[in-house]
């Protein structure tokens, strides 16, 4: 079909073009310039083209993006667009000129080549080629120009629409302003009408609310006076009746100037009284029905566990079965008391509190009647144990049993009435209301049965047994350990113990101590045989004191055993010390009156011995304000330091010179009686209002001074060899014997007294020497 030479795309430039073969046809067609060589038929020899220099085709790029100025308004937008289109047209012209220059450069060829082509082609064809080339090269730009022209038309349309809309909006704004100016007065009138409507609506609501307090009277009156109104207390709706009556009463009280307010107030209060009476009658009847069943079962059984289950478990279950009635009773009680039984203020407090007290009284009567077999059995067991065992053990077991019973009663009371009354002296509190219900059953407020039973036994018991029992109760229930965890039972027992001790047992034991002090100290006879100082036995300092002093120490120890330290300033302690001091002063007076017939013992040494033992016993037990001193006779050092032995030299000089009186010993060392403007008390005068420690210190200082002064004079007389005086050796021996007999096993006391005697003797000698020089 085709010759092989058609597939040879590389022309042979070495051969020249063969002349065309003449054709016989008369018409001679011009040979195509695109014909391929076929065999030996070759067109004119292709001459090599001269080198063609072309400029690099200019890269056609889209116009550079420019940021148009933002229009300030719709009217300004048109000018911005026109300015931007002008800039784009100028840039287009510049690019068009550059392209034409590029085309001219492309058309710059060798003159020889152009001339050859010009000889072969006609001028018309050349012009057509030029037009086609220009059109082809500008095709893209023409399209872009059409798009810009179309965009310009659209933007012109948008600008026109925008201007028309702005004109319309301006017209509307003007219209609105005109309407607003014309309707401002109308709007003000409408606002006034709306305000008036709201005021009237509020007034109508208030009037409707106020009328409700008046309209409620007829309905509640019919409900409370209807037959079978007592059944209302078993339902929750009864609580709403009480709430509404309270609200009506409060409203009438707050608005006394309303029409018939006083009359409506009286009627509402009458209805509240009737409603509370219905509740009281319903609750009391409910308790009576339960009691008739429970009491028979308790009396029929002899088992303690079965009785306890009936009295508390079964009773609680039966009471709470009628939950509506119990809830209404709780509502009434909580209307006048809070959770702890404190009174709460309210308009109808008197009505509610009266009903609550009546309910408490009915409940206490029922519980006392039901548990009477149990309480009687407990009392019989207690009396039997007192006779067969001992009073102290029986009292301890009875207290434990009563505390457990009281805790069970308090728990049952809290579940039924939803309050836990605490100790309160307010006469309107629930505690006082319960305390007034004096029954044989022990509860959280009624501890009188415990006290009455214990007092009947303790009044005939020994004082030591009473102290042991009260001390056990105090340490077991009142004083809690730091590491002991508090429980509801322990807190309950703590409260019961505090009231039991303060209201009953402490007054009892104080009276017992008063009677014992009067018997064994105040009115105790002082025999002649007891006025002796015997040697110390087994090194015990208190073994050779007077029996009255020894009994006083025993009473102080028993009182300390039974009482907490907070009661150390009790009048009982003061009376024990006071009466003991008076007894020792009576004994001292008796010794001084019998000194001529019986010089033994030394009155001053007798007082020092007994008062010093009493002082150490008082300080050791930490009574009064004296605390943190070592035990036994080491307290003598504290007393001796108060006397300031280092100042005795000047002190004795002043005393012996007559410049000081004995009143100095009741004040600080170195201060004269005139310094505080008080006269010095007599040596044996005892002031009841004075502190007990100060009393003992005063008397000890006086006795020590008298004893050391007298023996200082004897020592000086023995040293000077005065006629009728004993020798120094005999005097010192006699002094040592007296001191060792009184304070055997206490070398510190003996040394201090000997030192004081020597200082006194030296002071007397120096005073005599000063008088001799003068």
Task: Describe what is shown at a glance.
The chain is mainly α and 774 residues long.
Q: Number of helix segments?
A: 23
Q: What is the helix/strand order?
A: HHHHHHHHHHHHHHHHHHHHHHH
Helix residue percentage: 55-70%
Mean pLDDT level: 77
* Low-pLDDT regions: 1-59, 625-637, 642-686
Structural class: mainly alpha
Largest sheet: none
Amino-to-carboxy terminus distance: 182 Å
Give me the count of strands. 0
Task: Indicate how many domains the architecture comprises.
Answer: 3
Strand content: under 5%
Task: Give me the Rg, rounded.
Answer: 64 Å
- Which outline best applies? elongated
Structural overview:
The chain has 774 residues and is mainly alpha-helical. It folds into 3 domains: 1-24 and 32-47, no CATH class; 261-516, no CATH class; 524-773, no CATH class. 66% of the residues lie in helices and 0% in strands. The chain has helices spanning 74-106, 111-120, 123-137, 139-225, 237-254, 261-300, 304-319, 323-334, 349-370, 372-388, 391-417, 430-435, 448-458, 463-478, 488-522, 547-562, 571-593, 603-620, 635-643, 648-656, 692-720, 728-742, 747-773. α15 packs antiparallel against α16 and α20 (648-656) packs across α23. It is elongated.
């Amino acid at each position: 079909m085709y010759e092989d030479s058609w597939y040879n795309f590389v022309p042979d430039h070495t051969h020249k073009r063969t002349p065309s073969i003449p054709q016989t046809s008369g018409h001679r067609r011009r040979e195509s310039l695109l014909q391929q060589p076929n065999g030996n038929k070759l067109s004119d020899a292709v001459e090599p083209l001269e080198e063609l220099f072309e400029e690099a085709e200019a890269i056609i790029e889209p116009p550079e993006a420019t940021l148009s100025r933002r229009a300030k308004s719709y009217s300004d937008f048109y000018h911005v667009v026109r300015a931007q289109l002008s800039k784009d047209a100028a840039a287009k012209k510049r690019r068009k000129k550059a392209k034409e220059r590029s085309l001219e450069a492309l058309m710059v060829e060798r003159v020889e080549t152009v001339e050859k082509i010009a000889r072969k082609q006609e001028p018309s064809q050349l012009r057509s080629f030029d037009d086609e080339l220009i059109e082809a090269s500008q095709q893209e730009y023409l399209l872009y120009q059409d798009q810009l022209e179309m965009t310009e038309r659209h933007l012109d349309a948008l600008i026109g629409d925008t201007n028309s809309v702005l004109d319309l909006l301006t017209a509307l704004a003007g219209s609105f302003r005109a309407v607003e100016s014309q309707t401002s007065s109308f709007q003000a009138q409408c606002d006034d009408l709306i305000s008036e409507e709201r005021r009237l609506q509020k007034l109508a609501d208030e009037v409707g609310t106020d009328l409700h307090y008046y309209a409620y009277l007829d309905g509640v009156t019919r409900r409370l006076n209807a037959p079978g109104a007592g059944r209302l207390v078993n339902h929750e709706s009864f609580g709403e009746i009480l709430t509404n009556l309270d609200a009506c009463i409060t409203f009438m009280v707050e608005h006394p100037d309303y029409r018939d307010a006083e009359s409506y107030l009286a009627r509402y209060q009458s209805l509240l009284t009737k409603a509370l009476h219905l509740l009281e009658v319903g609750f009391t009847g409910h308790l009576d029905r339960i009691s008739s069943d429970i009491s028979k079962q308790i009396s029929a059984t002899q088992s303690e566990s079965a009785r306890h289950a009936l009295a508390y478990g079964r009773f609680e279950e039966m009471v709470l079965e009628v939950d509506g009635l119990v809830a209404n009773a709780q509502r009434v009680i909580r209307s006048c008391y809070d959770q702890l039984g404190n009174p709460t203020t309210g308009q109808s407090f008197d009505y509610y509190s009266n009903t609550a007290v009546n309910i408490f009284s009915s409940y206490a009567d029922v519980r006392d009647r039901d548990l009477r077999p149990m309480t009687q059995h407990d009392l019989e067991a207690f009396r039997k144990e007192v006779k067969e065992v001992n009073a102290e053990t029986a009292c301890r077991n009875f207290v434990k049993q009563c505390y457990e019973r009281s805790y069970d009663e308090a728990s049952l009371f809290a579940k039924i009435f939803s309050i836990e009354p605490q100790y309160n002296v307010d006469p309107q509190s629930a505690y006082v209301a319960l305390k007034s219900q004096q029954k044989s059953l022990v509860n959280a407020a009624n501890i009188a049965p415990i006290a009455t039973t214990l007092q009947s036994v303790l009044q005939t018991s020994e004082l030591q047994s009473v102290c042991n029992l009260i001390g056990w109760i105090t340490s077991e229930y009142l004083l809690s350990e730091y590491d002991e965890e508090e429980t509801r039972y322990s807190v309950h027992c703590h409260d019961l113990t505090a009231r039991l001790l303060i209201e009953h047992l402490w007054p009892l034991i104080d009276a017992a101590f008063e009677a014992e002090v009067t018997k064994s100290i105040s009115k105790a006879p002082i025999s002649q045989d007891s006025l002796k100082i015997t040697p110390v036995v087994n090194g015990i300092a208190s073994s050779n004191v007077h029996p009255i002093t020894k009994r006083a120490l025993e009473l102080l120890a028993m009182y300390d055993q039974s009482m907490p330290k907070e009661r150390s300033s009790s009048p009982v302690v003061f009376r024990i010390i006071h009466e003991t001091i008076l007894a020792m002063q009576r004994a001292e007076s008796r010794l001084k009156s019998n000194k001529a017939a019986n010089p033994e013992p030394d009155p001053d040494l007798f007082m020092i011995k007994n008062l010093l033992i009493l002082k150490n016993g008082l300080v050791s037990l930490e009574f009064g304000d004296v605390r943190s001193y070592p035990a036994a006779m080491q307290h003598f050092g504290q007393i001796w330091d108060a006397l300031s032995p280092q100042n005795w030299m000047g002190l004795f000089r002043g005393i012996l010179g007559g410049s000081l009186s004995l009143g100095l010993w009741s004040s600080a060392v170195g201060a004269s009686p005139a310094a505080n403007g008080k006269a010095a008390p007599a040596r044996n005068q005892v002031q009841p209002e004075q502190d007990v420690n100060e009393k003992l210190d005063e008397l000890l200082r006086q006795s020590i001074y008298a004893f050391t002064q007298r023996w200082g004079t004897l020592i000086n007389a023995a040293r000077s060899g005065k006629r009728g005086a004993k020798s120094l050796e005999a005097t010192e021996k006699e002094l040592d014997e007296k001191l060792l007999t009184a304070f055997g096993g206490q070398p510190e006391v003996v040394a201090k007294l000997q030192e004081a005697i020597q200082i006194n003797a030296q002071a007397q000698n120096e005073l005599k020497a000063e008088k001799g020089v003068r």
